[in-house]
Amino acid sequence: MAVVSTMILRSMRLTGEKARGATLDTNEQTELLAELNTFMDACANERLLCYQITQDSVAIAASTGPLTVGPGATFNITRPTRLVDPCFVRDASGYDSPLKIIEMESYGSLRLKSVGYTYPTHIAYDYGYSATSTATLYLYPLASGGLTLFINSWKQLGNFSTLTQTVMLPPGYQLFIESNFAIHTAAGVVTVSPELAKMAKESKAAIKGLNAPQATPIMQFDTGIASGSRRSSILTGP
Asked: Can you give the pTM of this predicted structure?
């Protein structure tokens, strides 16, 4: 658990701009909170800095068209940075039907988007960003009955509203934020020490290593059993 102002001051101490026990004046408070949120916005675009995949759902009626997604939108959640598998729809009987995530270019090439099945088979996300922080989801084809849509998306680190805000961070994230934000604010102002550069690099690498997707082993036939000399997966065949 950390206080935003304390994290900023620690970053300033790492660059030598602030001594221990120092405080931020009014101008520094405004400027550095804005700078910290700029830094956090950039972090949200790095998959290996996102510490969690979250699942959200919303009920959709038959023939529901594009869904706005974001704060206060039809799909009232934080605007997703990116959709990831699995996304699916669920009917009233609890039956789940998977959705294939496609790019907007592929969605745009579909000529008749409302041709109907009970269940959509594809979902597209425009990744747009409106003045209200909303984007849009598109289902293909439109559902012919009421369903519940489930999406999985990157969990963003998020921004900070005030300097007095107390935040809960996963292990290792506070050091990552403080050391890397220190380098961010030092650009064009002070020279970064080798010790700080090493701390920032290693703390970021540790988080990325922890968040990296783990490969799932796929069982294979022994070479002597598989046809010819090729190895074959028991899931996908030769």
From this structure: 0.69
